[in-house]
Amino acid sequence: MCLGIPGQIVSIIDADAPSAMVSVGGVQRAVNIACIIDEAHSPAQCIGDWVLVHVGFAMARIDALEAERTLAILAELGEMQSEIDAMRQGAGA
What residues have CB less than 8 Å from 18, skipping those under 6 apart? Predict the structure, then answer.
């Protein structure tokens, strides 16, 4: 099953690419942020934003409460650990 997992943007890697470092459960991973930026919301303005991450892309911005609820549900379902493990494996590739 493919999940969008909440992560928080901690830094911008390359505003032109555009890519950012996202923290998901303490694991940091580079993701493409092209889907969440526009003329009203630049890459620099994304730092601190919560986003749904799926296959290396930040697909949508979400609020902190939604992120917290989603992470709690994933933890209850045991899905979060498998997603974090998958991200760790992908980071080493």
Answer: 12, 32, 33, 34, 37, 43
Query: Going from the N-terminus, what domains does the chain have, and what CATH number goes with each?
Result: 5-91 (2.30.30.140)
pLDDT of residue 14: 96
Ranked by mean pLDDT, which of 8-12, 22-26, 74-78 comes out on top?
8-12
pTM over 0.85: no
Question: Please, what's the b/e burial string for 31-62 (b: 16 or more CB within 10 A of its CB; e: otherwise)?
Answer: bbbebbbeeeeebeebeebbbbbeeebbbebb
- β-bridge partners, 58: 53
